Amino acid sequence: MAHVFIAGGTGYMGQRLVAQLLDRGHRVRAVARPGSEKKLPSGCAIVAGSPLEPATFAGQIAPADTYVHLVGVAHPNPSKAAEFKAIDLKSIEMAVPAAVGAKVRHFVYVSVAHPAPMMKAYIKVRSRGEELIRGSGMNATILRPWYVLGPGHRWPYLLKPLYFICEQIPSTAEGARRLGLVTLTQMIAALTRAVENPPNGVRVVEVPEIAA
Length: 212
What we know:
Elements: E1 3-7, H1 14-23, E2 27-32, E3 45-48, E4 66-69, H2 81-101, E5 106-110, H3 120-136, E6 139-144, E7 147-149, H4 160-168, H5 170-178, E8 181-183, H6 184-196, E9 202-206, H7 207-210
Parallel strand pairs: 1-2, 1-4, 2-3, 4-5, 5-6, 6-9, 7-8
């Protein structure tokens, strides 16, 4: 049984991950802004605060052995570069030292597949998050999805025939696999495996492994 602290537990992936971990017998607590607590499943311990303000949650991370960071701008696109810096980057800058201070043994981070021909600002911010984690000395699992299919995120299903064609062409096959689409169910399963199988060092989980 893991003791898990989650930042971003009220979000798209977070709510489902919290429920899954609780169902599997893990202890979960999540930081939630006032007014968002009802989004968390029953059984999750609530830490009232903001992932952008470590003073509101850092003292309540312990005794968690695992920290899962899911904070980020919803529906990222190239027009949101300023938001990526203000939310995605700032939150990981706050989370890493807070986790180190709480003696967390395993940090789980959702990054993004890279390199890629678009979303450069987003990739830059997420890559900086990876650098901070690596520099912290914590054991960590870094997951790199490209696009997660699920409720409200279904239009890329239209691209599946194109992905299939690209995977058959030697010059584009590697990129098509690395930037492939994964489902929300696959992503939650990959996050659960990460929590339950902490590495010794830093482990990077790319799209093919997420989709396996």
